[in-house]
Amino acid sequence: MSVELQAPPQASAAAVASAKLVVARNEALRLIKTQIERGLEIKRAKIRYVPDLERAREAKGEWTTGVMRMLKGIYNTGAVADECQAWHGKVLPEYADLNLFIEHFYDEMDQRLRKLHTVWKRIQELPEEVAKPLSSPAAAANPDFFEAATTPPPAAAPASAAAPAARPRSGVFVVYQHDPRAQTAVREFCTKLGFDIAEIAQDAQPDATIAAQLDQHSHLDFGLILSRAENPPKPFELGYCVGRLGLKRVFVLSATDDKLSVDEHGLLHIPLDPADGWQLHLARQLKRAGLEIDLNRVF
Question: Which CATH number fits domain 170-298: 3.40.630.30, 3.40.50.2300, 3.30.428.10, 2.60.40.1120?
């Protein structure tokens, strides 16, 4: 049986464009970021069997309901919520292969997250005076994710107390297993976050160990290690990296792992998933480690 496209009615573009916030701009951003985080958690669920798919669908249904309620609560019209609810998918026959249903689920989550992120960007671009706060300024605080671009800058220091020039922020990227696609993605992401990245390959300098190559870089803020299960880092080199940078600033990136994990040494392993969920994980961990990160750049 052939599949047919599902095309639910969508809210008019004019109605969406004329929608007005009824809460503070920063509060709206905070509420939407909470739903984006929740949606990403659902999307990252590992689905292999029918019970997994059923649980994921149930979580998606609850999340979708929450998103609709939230959008209707922050706008003066339901048009934005209706536009986010509409999506184009496939109607599959009951006897279709399980993998098709799983693919269908991920496709729906991708579309819904993209729509919600579009709303977030639309609100972020609003002038600050558009917001009409209904709560105290403390309620609009946004400490961990999607920092508001309108946060007032700190008061300038007196001219007589000139601060020393800040050194460039930098990290080291240690490659134990060459993966051109992964290496490019990691380099580009670190650059997007505003870091200089020094890449060290196990075979780049045959006469120098990884530890010796690390010593060639005097100022490093964090370390990323790219490896696979069949080619793990050597214990001494891993320990040297952790000893120099700190356990909370060293992360193992793996294209073979399928979920976040912490090994027996306390190191966090982040899977390089095709949906790029690793970028949010890494950015948040760097922020928690004390590095200044603008999480607006993740998307």
Answer: 3.40.50.2300
